[in-house]
Amino acid sequence: MHASGEDRMRGETRLTAEEALRSLGISLEELNEMLRLGLAEPTAPGGSEFTVETVIRLQRVRRLHDDLEVDVLGAAIIVDLIERLDRLEAEIQSLRARARPAS
Questions:
Q1: CATH number of the domain bearing residue 37
Q2: How many percent of the chain have pLDDT more than 90?
Q3: Alpha-carbon distance 50 to 19, whole Å?
């Protein structure tokens, strides 16, 4: 795992394709298929590095696929919806915090 100066400023750690494969427990062919399906993208077009966030997302997709036997595209949709709900809940909490009168 490594982070460039620009990545550190954004708090973004990148994994090489090999590190991502080890973390996901999949083959290069499986990763390429996930990329072909648009389930994730490398940090740069044609690149071989992935953000930790992307690898975590793919882990969630794999878990839904493996544990619940949801097809990969269905699992990706579920993960998208969960991520959207998480963002909306965080936004609601932020708005509530700002709306509270100062004591």
A1: 1.10.1660.10
A2: 80
A3: 9
